[in-house]
Amino acid sequence: MALLLAAQALAGGCEGIQSALAPAGREASRIAGLFWLMTVVALVVWIVVIALAVYYGRARPGRRSRMRDRLLIVGGGVVVPAITLTILLASSLAMLPAAVERAPAGSLLVAVTGEQWWWRVRYLPGDGREIVLANEVRLPAGEPVQFRLDSDNVIHSFWIPALAGKMDMIPGRTTHLTVRPTATGVFRGACAEYCGTSHALMAFYVEVMEKTAFERWLDGQAAPAVPMPAGPAARGRELFEATGCGACHTIRGTPAGGLIGPDLTHVGSRLSVGAGILPTSPDEFRRWIARTEHVKPGVHMPAFGMLPDADLDALAAYLAALK
Amino acid sequence: MPETTTSDKQPLAAPPPLDVRRGQEERLLRAWKTPTGWRYWSAVNNSEVGLWYTAATFVFLLFGGALALLMRLQLATPGNDLLSAELYNQAFTVHGSVMMFLFAIPVFEAIAVMFLPQMLGARDLPFPRLSAFGFWAFLIGGLFLSGSIFVGAAPRGGWFMYPPLTSTYQPGIGPDIWLLGFSFIEVAAIAAAVEMIVGTLKCRPPGMRLNLMPLYAWYILVAAAMILFAFPPLIAGSLLLEVERAFKWPFFDPAGGGDPLLWQHLFWLFGHPEVYIIFLPSVALIAMIVPTFARTPIVGYTWVVLAAVGTGFLSFGLWVHHMFTTGLPGISLGLFSAASEAIAIPTGVQIFCFIATLAAGRMTRSVPMLFTFGSLVIFVLGGLTGVMVAIVPFDFQAHDTFFVVGHFHYVLIGGALFPIFAGCYYFFPLINGKALSERLGRIGFWLAFAGFNVAFLPMHLTGLRGMPRRVFTYPDDLGLNALNMTSTVGAFILAAGVAVIFWDLVRPKGGQPYARRNPWAAGTIEWLQEMPGKPWGIRSIPEIDSRYPLWDQPNFERDVDEGRFYLPDAEEEKRETIVTSVIDATPEECLRLPGPSFIPLYAAVATGGFFVFGTFHLWWLACASLVLATAIIMYWLWTGTAIIPEKPEKHVGLGLTLPLYRSGPNSVSWWAMCITMLAVLTAFISLVFAYFFFWTIHTDFPPDPTPGPDPFWPALGGGLALAAWALVMLARRRNRADDARSTYAALASASLLAGTSGAALIAGPWLANLDPQQHVYPATVWLLLIWSTGHLALGILMNAYCVARRLAGRMTADHDIDLANVGLYWHFCTLTTVITVAVVAGFPLVA
Questions:
Q1: What ipTM does the predicted assembly reach?
Q2: B580-624 pLDDT tens trace
Q3: Which residues of A touch B384 (CB under 8 A)?
């Protein structure tokens, strides 16, 4: 047991931000606890079975004993597993209602739609506002949050290992996932259902914040885009409209109102570019715009590498400035 | 405690003089001679076909393994670009599909084709040409599928092929290759399952009652029966998906009322039993190996049998545990979680029976036992992680991550691959009389065992640290780098172990002396074989009264060799084996078996043409292939089956005379027809399941009022089908009464009624202008009616065949296998039609 705790400490020591073993939410904590418990039991069972097999493989045969046959087959094969499994099943089923229950009425509702290969995120705080964002989720610590999940293309699966288990996003259906973050911090989520070419590149960052900070952030996200000071960013905004980016992307407060691609109103404030795959910086924006297909194979957005360098820089500056 | 033997009670007659025996052996040899030269490939004998079959599956294993190594190279470092995303996605799709459909399942059928007859003391399985057909179909389909990755056209929807990704989002031919290619292979697998079931039930040696049957045969029986009920849902699902892809019938498209989850139900209804279809026949090898090396009969024979049967049943109630994260209600999650846990118990029973056997005996060390222990160490761990992922809350995290990849490789490599390697080392002397190398075996084992654990143990942690499955890359900063690199290194060590084992299998053994007869001193009758074996399989078919006759029955080997038992001769130089009753194995018939023929190969090529051309949507060529395949199969049936013998019965030895021709339920072909039709009926029930699945998810399914069909037409079709059925039954009776004219009249009018019935069934949706592309209701109705109509059309063809057989004198009043089997077909055909009518016309009235 001490060894196991040491192993747990060791394993926990180098966990990343996408680990189910470094939980920061109620569900994830309970599941991590369950995992360690089951691991201990499984190891004990495994050692006993292998030890019995090795022992009897080496032992000289004594008298053939019907008692021993019965004990091994009925005891080892039926009784012990039946008891262990019943206890395990009962305790896990007891966890189930809480794991699948909905968040109480009035909780923050976040609707997430899986796209190929990004996330359309809509915040519905319950005050009549609907704030459309993309590829990032921020949550208030200590409060239940209801995720409403769907897809209008292929099947995806919404998974933030540090907070809770995963839930599929299925065309034609709506699924729900309740998350109760317990600690602030930055985490990473990913699509867990194979959804086509760039399934591996469909991720997002999750930031759990203090409630007041969260509300400030949400109000900021609800506002239209910040005005651009004269310079490359302002020129980028003109290019954004002239190049037709607005056909697919919305930047609230500007003529760009496309609905096909992610909302970019505050894209410069996000922790990542391209659905959790590049850090946010003008250089990475530029890389994304110019070499989209290279960065994310199969992506539906065409690459704009044919634009002059200066234009690419201006577009990147504009997007980075959309704080 | 050996039971008293019949040979003690009634001592066998003295052997015939030596010159008579030599004559017998010459005649047997001529009857069972393996063709030479290019005609070698027309062989249908189980030892030949089984060997080709096994070799082909091993080649596919290497191919799937090579793809895995490529994947591991790609994942060795984060952000690697060795493989493109597309190629990686093709690689994991083909890896999974090849390992499942071209290795794990066929290898069990291949090994069973090779050794089952010898374990049952039969000269061959009851339908050697069917085995050959199954092998050729498998080979053609397998090459087609594997080849597709070399032209970049391979399926890339995952081995689970979830729509809508595989319907509208992948317009290329990749998914068609998967759907049609594997349907073809599944048909071959069902053919093999029919062969296994009839083989174990009807071709055992006299006296081998069910409870004396080797455990291997029990496991094969259970696994083959599972194939019958597990594969048809997938075939039905593939049909729905292919029809959606080719003709835009919206079975899985929510825009037309379809539902992607229907595919998941049908797929996992196949997919979960499939795991046990792979696992049970591999444990079967362990169940033969452990008693041999423990030098004692298996402890808990009945427990093992019950556990295997119980596993078979339970495995059909677990499929939803692959769908825990699809948002199903809590009650479903709980029930399927409990069922999934429960299957650990029969598995535990089997393992503890083996441990109890070790305890009862004194184990000798050997390479097969080394692999058996390796298998135990790995499989038990995989089983325990299986218990973990069956726990719903934990599965919410572990599902679709590398934890699951680690889990099921522990199950499959521990539960199937290591037992198969154990089986290779154990059974190899039966193949060409040469033993494998003890030294290479040990080296191969330790490399494979160590490499496997280094590769797959870290994956559990990789998954819990957030690495989903089926990703071609991963970021640098998630703490996954060292774990992935370790897995890659382990994979190459495992590959080195497999390479050593394969070298041992294929290395030239010309200079090596033949192994001793029964080299392991085993107790079961396959070890009667001489080294090297003779093409006749067994010199005379023994009377069995023990589970381990070589240990328990005195003078057994001598009696068999001297031809003191049944069928020691082939007087007419025809291939023969004994058919016995299902429970008690009392002799019933001397079955004549067909010899070498290229027809199975031609039939497989033509059938393959249908699926391959269909993949490319070359419908005319596909139809031409189908017609050609039908013609070849008709020729095959006409020339090779239900042959009227030159005499009604023959003396088979030990004073026993057996008939050479039996029809109806006494005929092995009747059993085969019955078993085949159970599989076909299961596919049909899967389609009916689809109808009711839509009913449960939609409030307006069937729509009220229905857009059609008018209940009159299906009801008329059903009534006519019943009348046709009655006439076929009448035809059977008239034929028995040797009233040829009434037989012809009844069959002809039955065909006429069946044709009209089919027309009436189709008229319903046709006259109502039901458009199957518009909504899933008309699509489902059309599909059910077309399915039934297809059955009726096949029934008409069969009636015509019977008329022709009777006219040609190949079917008579006493020799009516054809008509008896066709009558059986009509039972199923009529049942299908009646259910269709009840659903299509009746259900909307009560829904």
A1: 0.96
A2: 999 999 999 999 999 999 999 999 999 999 999 999 889 999 999
A3: 42, 45-46
